[in-house]
Amino acid sequence: MGTLLGFDYGTRKIGVAVGQTLTGTATPLETLQLVNHKPDWARIGQLIKEWQPQALVVGLPLDVDDSETDATQPALRFSRQLEGRYRLKVYLADERFTSFEARDRLGHKARRIEDYDAVAAKLILETWLNEQ
Q1: pLDDT tens for each residue of 33-78
Q2: CB 118 within 8 A of CB 29
Q3: Radius of gyration of the chain (CA)
Q4: E strand or H helix that includes residue 106
Q5: How far apart, in whole angstroms, are the C-alpha atoms of residue 58 and residue 16?
Q6: Cα(23)–Cα(52) distance, rounded to whole angstroms?
Q7: What's the whole-model pTM score?
Q8: What is d(CA 30, CA 94) in angstroms, rounded to the nearest whole number?
Q9: I need a surface site. Which of 44, 55, 84, 124 has the fewest CB within 10 A?
């Protein structure tokens, strides 16, 4: 398939990562702040133009018992908006515990709290790649 962009959607910020289906790996890119309570569509558009992904992957927040959380519907709405705006296939990947794992992996190495979101996006993307 080629290049993919992964997103860890949150109500205040969105972590972004890029990955390759060939290698099955991903790299954290950046964390975007929401603009007026909405995704930074201009920056997302720039990232899509720059990386030219074949598809997008959005983390789906679920509870440990597979039920929805308060964050599930906003993430689903974000995934539909991505698909509609950019006409790219959007896949969903289970994102349970990715934020915790990102904090574990970075520990005190994170320069800013936002670094965790980009690493969480990397983990979401790698989860999806490993399941394919």
Answers
A1: 999 999 999 999 999 999 999 999 999 988 777 777 788 899 999 9
A2: yes
A3: 13
A4: helix 98-106
A5: 9
A6: 17
A7: 0.85
A8: 20
A9: 84
Domains in the chain, ordered, with CATH? 3-131 (3.30.420.140)
CA separation for the pair 119, 13 (Å, rounded) = 13
Q: Indicate the Cα dihedral angle 102, 123, 120, 26, nearest 10°.
A: 110
Q: How many Cβ atoms are within 10 Å of 132's Cβ, its own excluded?
A: 8
CB atoms inside a 10 Å sphere around CB 110:
15
- How many angstroms separate the CA atoms of 70 and 97, rounded? 15
- Say how far apart CA 95 and CA 58 lie, in whole Å: 9
Query: 99 is written with which tokens?
Result: 């934020």
79 Cβ contact partners less than 8 Å away, ≥ 6 residues apart: 9, 56, 58, 90, 92
CB 125 within 8 A of CB 28: no
Tally of residues, the chain:
132
